[in-house]
Design goal:
There is one protein chain. The protein folds into two domains: 133 residues, VC0802-like; 174 residues, Vaccinia Virus protein VP39 (Rossmann fold, 3-Layer(aba) Sandwich), CATH 3.40.50. It has eight helices and 14 strands. The strands form two sheets. A seven-stranded mixed β-sheet has the order 2-3-1-4-7-6-5. Strand 5, helix 3 and strand 6 form a beta-alpha-beta unit. The longest helix has 18 residues. The chain is elongated.
């Protein structure tokens, strides 16, 4: 099936990478529209995709009316419909709806809660039409750190945390380990996607906070007090946001990162997604640990901090 993914423009490169990590297939990116041939259906997992459509056809303004006249709209129409158009110099929704109306059996317009939504995307040269398939998860804001029972100021935004899990390419019911779990933000997102989640942290207080947060969101979990640099068990997928408090002496951070990555080389079976603070030379540590840096992405948080997201293999 050919699908259209409407990607978030906040970080287009990361949005695209998230989709391609779990949806294999031939693809093409036009503006923020990712066209992809795939049979997989993991749509509910995505964090930086605004909507997913089944691709219907391509045309331009000159051929739009002719294509609408020839297209089999009833194949996709159910009960009621609405038309939405997007992009610079797009045609009014009502004008397109008037054209489509004539080719539907028992047409019924419903602008509030239509059963069928036909969307038209106007780019510089082409118009792409798709029928909406998947409403995306919009509950990320409800899971932000300050709304959890136990707050930690450096916790990742839930949308980013979910994206990191998706970058592993793991398919449920795999296990996701976060060896620096903190208050559990990454574990919450992985657990809500039906992964088995395991969290380690060396701090008793963090383990207690993660316990309360995970229970609040009804996530099944396994929490253990453990030094991330001394893990012995091997795992397929590891996702973590490395500690980066500037109050910690730089030499301590460097030793921590070095020891952790060298141990990661021993315990990682398939893929890890690791967040480094941008002020750290991450490549030095990855190379020293003899790990493979598959790809990296830069993610801006605020004026004093950015992250480098590294996809790593043994």
């Amino acid at each position: 099936m050919k699908l259209i993914f409407v990607l978030s423009k906040h970080n287009l490169e990361l949005s695209k990478a998230e989709v391609l990590s779990i949806f294999p297939g031939k693809h093409k990116l036009i503006d923020n529209l990712l066209f992809l041939d795939t049979r997989k259906t993991y749509a509910g997992r995505l964090a930086y995709t605004k909507a997913i459509y089944q691709y219907l056809f391509t045309c331009n303004k000159k051929t739009l009316e002719r294509v609408i006249r020839k297209f089999d709209w009833n194949k996709y129409y159910e009960h009621s419909f609405a038309i939405r158009s997007f992009g610079k110099d797009h045609i009014k929704d009502t004008e397109i709806a008037d054209l489509v109306w004539d080719y539907l059996d028992k047409p019924l317009v419903n602008l509030v809660s239509p059963k069928t939504q036909f969307h038209f995307f106007f780019t510089k040269d082409k118009i792409y039409c798709g029928v909406l398939l998947n409403p995306m998860d919009e509950s990320f804001e409800d899971r932000k750190a300050h709304l959890r029972p136990m707050l930690h100021p450096t916790s990742l935004h839930p949308r980013l945390a979910r994206c990191l899990v998706n970058l592993t390419g793991a398919i449920q019911p795999a296990t996701i380990l976060d060896p620096f779990c903190g208050t559990g933000g990454i574990l919450i997102e992985a657990g809500l996607m039906d992964f088995k989640v395991i969290g380690y942290d060396i701090d008793d207080l963090m383990i207690k906070r993660a316990d309360k947060n995970l229970k609040h969101f009804k996530v099944k979990y396994d929490l253990r007090k453990k030094d991330a640099t001394k893990i012995k068990i091997r795992y397929n997928y590891i996702v973590t946001d490395l500690p980066y408090a500037r109050s910690t002496r730089k030499v301590d951070l460097e030793k921590l990162y070095s020891d952790f990555l060298k141990n990661l080389k021993k315990i990682l079976k398939k893929r890890a997604v690791i967040c480094f603070p941008s002020f750290i030379n991450h490549k030095k540590f990855i190379k020293s640990a003899k790990l493979k840096l598959v790809v990296e992405y830069s993610y801006y948080l605020h004026k004093s901090l950015s992250k480098t997201i590294c996809v790593i293999e043994p």
